[in-house]
């Protein structure tokens, strides 16, 4: 999905909105722990951490993964209706 053409396709946004919603619902089942539950391997094999920087290429200030793990606080500050 790295192809920039996907960004012009409306279904792309619907798909990612649903992924965000599912992530939010999963976190709500154990929010105390799941807003800190992040791990795995990056390309090249290094371990990923909450302090990894997400570079936004000048579109906004760079942020860390930790900054956006909780949709109800920090940089994002939103919740889904009915939850």
Explain what the structure shows.
With 83 residues, the protein is mostly helical. It has helices at residues 10-28, 31-34, 65-68; strands spanning 53-54, 63-64. The protein has a two-stranded antiparallel sheet. Strand 1 (53-54) and strand 2 (63-64) form a beta hairpin. The radius of gyration is 14 Å and the shape is globular. The model has no long low-confidence stretch (mean pLDDT 86).
Short description, anyone?
The chain is mainly α. It has helices at 10-28, 31-34, 65-68, and strands at residues 53-54, 63-64. The protein is built from 3 helices and 2 strands; from the N terminus they run ααββα.
What secondary-structure arrangement, pairings included, does this model have?
Blueprint: H1 10-28, H2 31-34, E1 53-54, E2 63-64, H3 65-68
Antiparallel strand pairs: 1-2
């Amino acid at each position: 999905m790295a192809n920039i053409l996907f960004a012009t396709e409306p279904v792309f946004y619907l798909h990612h909105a649903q992924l965000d919603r599912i992530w939010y619902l999963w976190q709500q089942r154990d929010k105390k722990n799941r807003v800190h539950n992040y791990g795995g391997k990056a390309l090249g094999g290094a371990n990923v951490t909450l302090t990894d920087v997400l570079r936004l290429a000048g579109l906004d200030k760079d942020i860390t993964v930790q900054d956006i793990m909780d949709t109800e606080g920090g940089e994002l500050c939103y919740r889904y209706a009915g939850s």
